[in-house]
Amino acid sequence: MLNHSRSSRRRMALAIVCVLAVVGAFIVRLVDIQVVQADQLRAVAASKTADRSTVYGARGEIVDTNGNVLAGSVTRYDIVLDPLNAKPFKRTDDGGATATVSVEQAAAEIGAITGVTGADILKIIADALAVNPESRYAVAAKTLDVDDFQAVRALKIPWVGSQKHPGRIYPNGAVAGNVIGFVGSDGTPLQGLEQAQNDCLASINGTQSYKKGKDGVVLPGTTQTIVDAKNGGTLKLTIDRDLQWFAQQRIAEQVIKTGGDSGTVTIMDAKTGKIRAVAQYPSVDPGNVGGVDEYFRQALSFTAPFEPGSTFKALTAAMLLDAGLATPESKVVADGWYYPDNGARIKDSFPHGPMKLTLTGVLAESSNTGISQMGEALTPQQRYDYLKKFGIGDVTAIGFDAESGGILSQPDVWDNQTYYATMFGQGLSATPIQIASAYQALANGGVQVAPSLIEGCEHDDGTVTDVPSSSENRVVSEQAADQVVQMLESVVTDGHFGDTLEIPGYRVAAKSGTAEQGDGSGGLKDTYVVSMTGMAPAEDPEYVVSVHISNPTKIRSSAAAAPTFQQIMTQVLKTYRIEPSTEPSPDLPTTY
Amino acid sequence: MSSPAIARPTIAPDRRRPAVRPPLTVVPAREARKARPKLAYALWTVGGVGAILIAQLLMSVALSHGAYEVSSLKTQITELGWQKESIGEQLETLSSPQNVAAAAHELGMVINSSPAYLRLSDGAVLGQPGQAGDASSIPLGPADVVGNSSADALAADNAPVAEEDGAPAEDAAPTPVTFENGLPSPKTH
Question: Which residues in chain A (133-172) have CB-CB distances under 8 A to chain B?
Answer without folding.
Answer: 145-147, 149-150, 169-172
